[in-house]
Amino acid sequence: MNGLLAIMVVIICLVISLGFAANKVGGGDLNFSPKNASPVAFSHEKHVNAKGIKCSGCHYLAFQMAKAADKMNMMKMTKGAFCGRCHNGKLAFDVKDQKSCLLCHLNRKKRF
């Protein structure tokens, strides 16, 4: 009986810890400081939880997992690379639309 109780406690602890891990969106928020442009904030939370995009929807298709592996720039994005893969005016707001700039680029006064 004590063995069964011990196994149940271990299982409950594992389930609880996995539940907490599942609530954390991998990567957290990312901040980029591109040359000659305002800083960019990226929210994994907004893309994964709010929009329902799976990690594999971006990673290894549009982005690599290694930090600084991708040399992003707006020219590449406007041609459908990186963020421009989805932010094309069809799936999400268009990176080519100047009205959308402040959705990603922060006002210089609003730095994190």
Shape: elongated
Show unreliable segments: none
CATH architectural category: Alpha-Beta Complex
Distance between the termini: 54 Å
Give the rounded overall mean pLDDT.
79
CATH topology type: Cytochrome C3
Number of strands: 2
Order of helices and strands: HEEHHH
Number of structural units classed as domains: 1
Number of helices: 4
The fraction of residues assigned to DSSP E strands is: 5-15%
Radius of gyration, CA atoms, in whole angstroms: 19 Å
Question: Describe it for me?
Answer:
By secondary structure, this protein is mainly α. It has a single domain, classed as Cytochrome C3 (Alpha-Beta Complex). It is 34% helix and 7% strand. The chain is built from 4 helices and 2 strands. It is elongated, with a radius of gyration of 19 Å.
Q: Keyphrases for this structure?
A:
single chain; 112 residues; mainly alpha; Cytochrome C3; two-stranded antiparallel sheet; 2 strands; elongated
Question: Which secondary structure elements does this structure contain, and how are they paired or packed?
Answer:
Elements lengths: L1 H22 L5 E4 L7 E4 H7 L23 H5 L22 H4 L8
Antiparallel strand pairs: 1-2
Give a brief rundown of this model.
The chain is mostly helical and 112 residues long.
